[in-house]
Amino acid sequence: MQRALFPKGSEDAGRSMKLSPGVVSHGHVFVTGMTGSRVDGTMPDKLEDQFHMAFDKIGHVLAEAGLDHSATVEMTTYHVGLRDHFETFNTVRAQYVSDPFPAWTAVEVAGLRREGAVVEIRVIAALPDRQE
User: Fold this and answer.
1) For residue range 75-97, what is the model confidence (pLDDT) as tens digits?
2) Global pTM?
3) Ordered alpha helix ranges (H), the chain
């Protein structure tokens, strides 16, 4: 059985794009890649703000399943200019992960869908005791 997760305010965008911000399936929560855009779709100028916003949006999806960032078991991050902002990104990321740390793959990409975005983050989180 699968269940879609739609944090408050994400329903219209998710439905128009035919995607779920998160899906609960087989004991895990699969979170759609999140950029650091604001609710209105604009992008913060400061990279640090973009990174925090992306992680905060992921946190809202996880909260819909009764989880927080500590449930994350796998993270893939897609970066425009990875080497230019890696240290800043990793400093922000360290504020959201905890031991045992999730598996992580960082990938350099040529571009992302959202204009001005320099990172997109997707995660997989584990539900306790395979609750669905």
Assistant:
1) 999 999 999 999 999 999 999 99
2) 0.93
3) 11-17, 47-64, 82-93
